[in-house]
Amino acid sequence: MERVRLMTWCRSCVSGVHLPAFAAAEGGLFAEQELEVEFVGCARAPVWTLEGFTVRPKAVGSGEVDFGLTSVAYVLAAQTELDGNLGARFAAMSHQRNPIAAIVRDDSEFERPADLQGARAARWSIPWFAQEYAGALSYMGLDPSVIVDSQEPDAQLERGEIDVIPTWVDMTLNHVDKDYAVRPIGLDIETYATGLLAGDHLPLELVTRMRDAIVAGYQLQREQPEFGIAAFRRRFPDITEQHVRDSWALFEPYAFDGGAPGAMRADRWETTIAHTAATHGLSPFPAERVYRPELLAPALEYAPV
Fold first, then answer.
1. How far apart are CA 299 and CA 297, in angstroms?
2. Are 133 and 121 in contact (CB under 8 A)?
3. Which among 262, 236, 254 is positioned nearest to 15, based on CA atoms?
4. What are the sequence ranges of the domains in the chain?
5. How many helices (H) and strands (E) does the chain have?
6. b vs e for 54-64, b when ≥16 Cβ sit within 10 Å of the residue's Cβ?
């Protein structure tokens, strides 16, 4: 068995993203690939800006961990800071399209992305979500929203002082336990958002085995959801089973619709890199500095065990 370290992400914000990897561990898919995977917590961001979150891809690039579940925006920000010398690239994609969404009151008049033009959108404690939201509207050819700096977006949404909280659709669950009902409006633009990052210090055959095990974990999680949920909750017992199930339900369409789970396509990557760089003022690095081109071929398909 070959031992590797996989850095997890925010246990409550994106619980569903983790489940294919935890299903792979619970269902023996890592063992099939002769891998022993240690799950480690994510590196703590010193500030919740895009630049602050680069600590996570940097941990993969430095060899502190071997793999990590992370964001395309974090990786491009890290590459920009390091002049293209981040020693890590993507091996598989989790969200096959961008999950940026507008959280609105359930009783609001907003129903579809076109309705959001001119709406008041919060720039809250994770400010890069407001940029991501604005970039998605621009990508769709829609007029921008009005960005409002906000210290308490949920309270302001309740009082009608703002119309939209920009966030990922996965994080809708962070806003539902209030005294008023909310719902997400997904913008669903066709760019990658998150995936499995692999350190450049790892040989391709090892990265391929890890990729294939996690890709197989998607189908296993879909067919036997108790596998990933049980393993995830042993690692993160403070997260309720219902929260994990609800998070997976929000994430699942973004993983399965529009392509095979984990898949990477050169044309989608070209669009993703250009859009993400323009949205966040980052450098548009060549594709080979963002993902491993050798892994563009379809991942192996495994039957659940």
1. 6
2. yes
3. 236
4. 2-96+191-296, 100-186
5. 10, 10
6. bbbbbbbbeee
